[in-house]
Amino acid sequence: MKKILFAIVLIATFGNIAAQTTDAEKELKTQNKDSLDGWKTGGVASLNLTQVSLTNWSAGGENSLSINGILSLFANLKKGNSTWDNSLDLSYGILQQGSDDIRKTDDKIDFTSKYGQKAFKNWYYAGLVNFKSQMTAGYNYPDDSTEISNFLAPGYVLGAIGLDYKPSEVFTFFISPITMKMTIVNDQTLADAGAFGVDAAVYDDFGTLLSSGKTTRSEYGGYLRALFKKDIMKNVNLQSKLELFSNYEEAAYVDVNWEVLIAMKVNKYISATLSTQLIYDHDIDIAVDNNNDGIIDGVGPRTQFKEVLGVGISYKF
Q: Does the model's pTM come out above 0.85?
């Protein structure tokens, strides 16, 4: 009888320990899962300054002052099988050279919000909204009296539904066969000229305005967006974003927007940043003066490229 009681007590004791261990494991797994959920926020802020002062300088040159600022922010939420990623990229730069007026050298607004619901493994059903524009008026220097762009002239609003591939926090790949892209030209002078692909104004043979230019243009097509973000070595962060859009009515032409930002830390606050942007949009006609003699040699779509290199104050958070 004592042996039977001892066996019952022994089984009950180990059963209780096993149950406690199993519950602890479940609690630990739940905590690990919960630790992955929630908001993750951060970004990079950089302010670069270049100044040149010359006095009786025999080699020649001009005094100059340039300032360029970059702000790149993100706020991502993960909750169970749902994800919500948000990013905002702002940049602005000015240059004052000699006795010339201040000129703009950089200007960008780029906001993206993407919501996803897990489909299978690393794939999500996702919807994306993107907005691009600039902050202030732009000019084709040295002509600083005729505006060639402004806030919402152009502005681009893109909405897409598709699949998002997220194998890690380093890389995401979004593809959508259902995409609407709206071009906004909120400047009637530019709209009448048919700038940025909108329908231009119509005039009769005597120059009388028959109908004003359209201020919006809608396109429907396919869209691809790939984003890579990683510390490629100590104190060096690389961000690269590639966006491709093809209008189904003109499938032979693909709009390209490829941006790269490299932030290199010297210490906690001093850093160097290199940003590049390559754009090709078949709907944007660009006048080219190859000889810089004031004579336009041709007008048409061109590959646009911008590069900004600066050393200054930077903070990553």
A: no
Other C-beta atoms lying within 10 Å of the C-beta of residue 79: 12
Q: What CATH number belongs to 39-316?
A: 2.40.230
The Cα–Cα gap between 72 and 241 comes to: 13
Each residue of 190-210: pLDDT tens digit?
A: 999 999 999 999 999 998 999
Using an 8 Å Cβ cutoff, are 248 and 221 in contact? yes
User: What's the pLDDT band for 295 if we cut at 50, 70, 90?
Assistant: low
Q: List helix spans (H) across the chain.
A: 2-36, 188-192
Query: What pLDDT digit, counting tens, does each position of 21-64 carry?
Result: 444 444 444 444 444 789 999 988 989 988 888 887 877 888 99
CB atoms within 10 A of CB 133: 20
The identity of residue 192, as a single letter, is D
- Whether 71 and 110 have beta carbons less than 8 Å apart is answered as no
Calculate mean pLDDT across residues 162-182.
95
Strand ranges (E), the chain: 38-52, 64-79, 82-97, 103-120, 123-133, 138-139, 147-149, 155-165, 171-184, 202-203, 209-211, 216-233, 236-247, 254-265, 270-280, 286-288, 298-300, 304-316
Q: Taking a C-beta distance cutoff of 8 angstroms, is the pair 246, 254 a contact?
A: yes
Query: Cβ distance 201 to 226 under 8 Å?
Result: no
